Amino acid sequence: MPHYHPPKIASSEITPKSLYMRRREFIGAAAGSFTAMALGSQALAAPLAAKPSIYKLDEKLTSKEDVTTYNNFYEFGTGKDDPARNAGSLNTRPWTIEVDGLVGKPQVIDIETIMKEIPMEERVYRMRCVEAWSMVIPWIGFPISAILDRVEPLGSAKYVAFETLVRPEEMQGQAGLFQALEWPYVEGLRLDEARHPLAILATGLYGETLPNQNGAPIRLVVPWKYGFKGIKSIVKITLTEQEPPSTWNRLQPSEYGFYANVNPEVDHPRWSQATERRIGEADGLFGGARINTLPFNGYADEVASLYDGMDLAKFF
Ligand SMILES: Nc1nc2c(c(=O)[nH]1)N[C@H]1C(S)=C(S)[C@@H](COP(=O)(O)O)O[C@H]1N2
Ligand SMILES: [Mo]
Q1: Which domain CATH number covers 158?
Q2: Does the annotation flag 226 for ligand binding?
Q3: Relative orientation angle of helices 32-39 and 17-29, to the nearest 10 degrees
């Protein structure tokens, strides 16, 4: 059962209210590993070995504290501190990814198989959110091609679609009356973008397995694109002929493109994309040092040729 679509019932609706409130207090009060034990089988952060990065970056790493407490993961709430507070309830074992669509060998791949059989590499990348803040993160992961090669895409496959888990009883942002987004969160890449060696599926950061709030057990990282392309907690990958839908584009196409390549010359309709706030750096009057945003987030030499002949402003 690789793909779990339970009915939309909040745990507060199926558990007596008093018990639910007490459980929330209890979970909130318990710390770290104790919370994990109380909730069952989600994996704790564990050391994760990786080959050193072949892509060097001469920039200061964002602290692990900031990387793991300032997050966007609307399945756990819309506040930046919600995911770190709420994502402990997600069970990341067992976990499978269904890979299907235009492939010769569709299959369901277990996360344990991925961790055992695919060599992990460290990749220190800039991460630029469309909201104009950024980080430098030491990810651990592997090129998406390692998965694509296993399923043998057909000649007709042109795009790769990704889907996040739907499990409202463990993802409180998917439960209850207010739903920030349409679930599942979906994203996509052109097949040649997905096959670019810079595009990875990440399984860890800072030398350990991914914390839940960062998209455990496996998430996409495409460093030359805005952060919303980096879909978390992936359960399904589908090869398609047509451009697949993407969550933010579907919600507001005038503000969030399918391509979403970082481009300081194309402003968001409501703010400039020319500069960014590097999280954790020299907090000033406006809450953080502003630095210039680079075309393709600084990866133009590697990836610009993917877009030869395209009007990049038009294809935001
Ligand atoms: N499933 C899912 N994936 C998601 C999001 C989300 O809300 N849900 N937010 C995106 C956005 S807007 C950003 S900036 C990055 C943030 O990744 P981080 O919290 O690990 O830094 O995750 C992306 N992936
Ligand atoms: Mo973002």
Answers
A1: 3.90.420.10
A2: no
A3: 140
